[in-house]
Write a structure and sequence with these properties.
2 copies of one chain form a homodimer. With 214 residues, chain A is an all-alpha fold. Chain A folds into 2 domains: 57 residues, Arc Repressor Mutant, subunit A; 139 residues, Tetracycline Repressor, domain 2. The first copy, chain A, has 10 helices and no strands. In chain A, helix 1 crosses helix 6 and helix 5 packs across helix 10. The longest helix of chain A is centred in the first third of the chain and has 25 residues. The two termini of chain A are 20 Å apart. The interface between A and B is large, with 37 and 37 residues. The structure holds a DNA duplex (18 and 18 nucleotides).
DNA sequence: GTCTATATCGCGATAGAC
DNA sequence: GTCTATCGCGATATAGAC
């Protein structure tokens, strides 16, 4: 998407949009949530704060779009896998981007406010996550790969909550291994197949490092 | 503590301190995190913002002390119980104070910043929680009330993370039953005795409502 | 469409008078 | 212990130049 050779009056604008999203993340990763003011981001890009707001009219909107872009990127990662395995691969990847996880979590809390712009985004996100987990578990059940007596919805709620809680804990102590903890929880629920699937995918990614050279 | 009949030059100051903590929570519950500025809290109390800062020199300090006071109050609640049961009772109670839980969670995220004043507080809190959970599980193990093969530390990490994640989810959708979800997780880990202990304590509290009249 | 300049507001924090 | 005044900063809105 947004090819390098794009022409027309909107090309520059779109490039700038992406540059802004990238800069936001950079500033955020380096200076933390409170440091990532619109002015600081504008400074990083050597543009005026007002121009920034020409592209993203509010700070909330900007932050939301950064998170949403990360979300889309995640969706594209390791597409062939089972959802739970796919999720695990993403959690492993999250381990390398504390700034983004911090942004995500901070936004999730802020969006708790009844009239926050990102509220519907999070509710949609939780719903999507839930239905994908449920579908996955039910598929595993039908093949006899996991016990019949587990409640897919309940497990989904628990997994989502655990994931967010583990992230918070990991942000507090970077040595905390949130990936391993999540794997452990999946094993507790006897959802071992996706774990093995993810481990194979991750091992393969190590052998053939495509984005590793950057 | 802090008796009504206390005398001396510090009495008024201490009363004011408590009034400030209470007002902070009120404003926070009503106007959310971003609405709870020092000015708004001062307005609520009909004092000047500067006076507020005479008692709590920074905003961070003030918020931290509100959370810390809630923590102490929790410690005093249902003291006779096993720690896990005690925790459950507190989670049930949390169900009625969304404003405080929101403050707690928001602060937990902010404290993720390496040089935030509340960082050591949270690390200490996590450590205390962990050791109490571990002690509890080990005691249960020694009496044969829970399976030998579970790793207490690992379960502690998972329970803490789950609790915080469930809170976030509950803040997003108030119908979400974080207490029941947590109970379910404890059952998954075959930690049923504390669940029953808590249910009995909660039922008794319903029969004899002591603080309910306020 | 792209961009700058400017103005207003509310914030946390400090200094100093009473 | 309490106030007023003020500082510097960030968020946001608007007017208008290119």
């Amino acid at each position: 998407m947004t090819a390098k050779y794009e022409r027309g009056p909107y090309a520059k604008g779109r490039e700038r949009r992406e540059a802004i999203l990238k800069a936001t993340l950079d500033v955020f990763s380096e200076s933390g949530y409170r440091g990532a003011s619109l002015r600081a981001i504008a400074r990083e890009l050597d543009i005026s704060p007002a121009l920034l707001q020409h592209y993203f009219s509010t700070r909330e909107e900007l932050l939301m779009e950064v998170v949403s872009a990360w979300d889309d990127e995640n969706d594209r990662r390791s597409e062939g896998l089972t959802f739970l395995a796919h999720w695990l691969v993403n959690i492993k990847h999250n381990t390398e981007i504390p700034g983004l996880i911090r942004l995500y979590t901070a936004l999730a809390i802020e969006a708790t406010d009844p009239d926050h712009a990102a509220r519907p985004y999070f509710n949609r996100r939780y719903d999507n996550l839930t239905s994908q987990i449920v579908r996955d578990i039910e598929r595993q059940k039908s093949v006899g790969l996991c016990p019949e007596d587990i409640d897919p919805k309940r497990v989904a709620r628990l997994l989502i909550a655990a994931c967010e809680g583990l992230q918070i804990r990991w942000l507090h102590s970077p040595d905390f291994d949130m990936y391993e903890e999540f794997v452990g929880l999946l094993r507790d629920f006897q959802l071992t197949p996706p774990v093995e699937e993810a481990e194979i995918a991750l091992a393969r990614a190590l052998e053939i490092p495509d984005g590793e050279g950057a």
